[in-house]
Amino acid sequence: GYRARSAYKLKQIDEEADLFERGDTVVDLGAAPGGWLQVAAEEVGEAGTVVGVDLQRIDDLDDHDVETIRGDMTEERTRHYLREAVDEEGADVVVSDMAPNMTGEYTLDHARSVHLARQAFDAADELLASGGDFVVKVFQGDDLDAFRDDVSEAFQYVRTVSPPASRDSSSEVYLVGKGYTRSPVAEGD
Ligand code: SAM
Fold this sequence. Notes:
By secondary structure, the chain is an alpha/beta fold. It has helices at residues 7-17, 35-44, 76-85, 106-127, 144-152, 184-187; strands at residues 25-29, 49-54, 67-70, 91-96, 128-139, 155-161, 172-180. Helix 1 packs across helix 2. The longest helix is centred in the middle third of the chain and has 22 residues, at 106-127. It is globular, with a radius of gyration of 15 Å. The model has no long low-confidence stretch (mean pLDDT 93). S-adenosylmethionine binds at residues 3-4, 6-7, 30-36, 53-56, 72-74, 97-99, 116.
């Protein structure tokens, strides 16, 4: 079984947006307790690489060889560790399920969620290989459209996915950017 029910959300997003291939390098931001790590590791197989980051400690995954980093994605040093963990060819997929601690105050929770989503986008910008994909959770609200527009500038296209497994927290959606276009690797082509 999976460590977190949220694993099913990533499976549903993958079914809809076709994220993972065998051998891929995947970075998972806000990865604790590790449900998404389990799904990613299954999908990329033994030839793949999966790296997870969270503020919380992530217990080792028994069946999979996954590297985990304990750190805050708003801090530069965490990004530094991540760059070291991903080889020069870059990541094929960056996913973020990061969420702020909820206060119940809708506009504040939204603003914090967008802030974290932008941190994930910056990390994706640093890590993704040309053609790579990006998934990021964000709570709906006033700043979502502007964020979506910014993401769409870096990808061939962006879609908004509401996986059935996240029906109960109806304010969350996932933006999926397909086909990263800003990689330095692509610039000389
Ligand atoms: N996808 C995970 C799974 O399947 O097990 C569940 C992730 S949970 C919804 C959100 C996570 O984001 C929490 O574990 C939280 O610690 C993490 N998080 C929130 N802010 C963060 C930050 N600034 N840096 C790193 N992780 C963060």
